[in-house]
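Sequence only, no structure available. Ideas?
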Amino acid sequence: MARQARGTTIRKPVVPEIQAREWVIACHGYAEAEHEAIAPLRRQFADSWTGPGKGSMRHMEDQTAVALEAVRLARLMAPNLAFDDWAVLACPLLPGRTTFRDNLKRYAEDGAWAISPQVIPQCSLHSLPGQVSIILGAHGPNLGIGGWPGTEDQVWSAAWAIDLAVEPQGLWLIWTGLETDLHPGGTSSTRLRALAVALSRTPDSQDLDGKWRLAIGAPNPADSPWCPWKAGSLLQDQCSPWSATVGASSLSLRFVPPGQNT
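Reply:
I predicted one. Tokens follow.
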């Protein structure tokens, strides 16, 4: 029986039943770059891609630039694929940290005219997926997820929920970060990494040819924790199924390689 408290009905929380979802990995890309290589990347995108102009590219956060390179490499695997009704979810780790530090220093030394108002729209958690959506022409939801080391697997929980509720044609999932933030053994404080994975939810027999298949569903206690940087190498090299746990072990991912997904 419901209990009343100050006019509000308090009920037990409802835990939704886990509904499995399945996708085809349409394409994927991995990129890394040292800090000094970011400016050339910005110029490359400003000259060759549609979307934000040169002014916007100049102020783009470093992780966004590396993410766009990963997306560009992924698109080479599926050059004819359109992304009109796709969602974009991204997990940049501590975005804008370096940019805000430099701008605050300039502000303290030279005042407000020494900094750009572009810092705020370009360095928030949602800036990266927003820029990717603009460049891809994707009109589905775009969200920044997590933003802190250790939150990388939250992207999958959000992808599962959005796919279940909105049913976009596909999802772009992106992870970025400094090497030292990505894993304790990182040795470079200036090298940035990015992994981009495009998941299609409308597979047919031709889509499965040469493509990985991915399912997300009920948890499996035997799975290892999700790590995007290990997954990037596995997608490139491994030819046997593998799985990982995500969402605080509430969901499980299962990857099935090409040739075994029929």
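The chain has a mean pLDDT of 81.
Hope that gets you unstuck.
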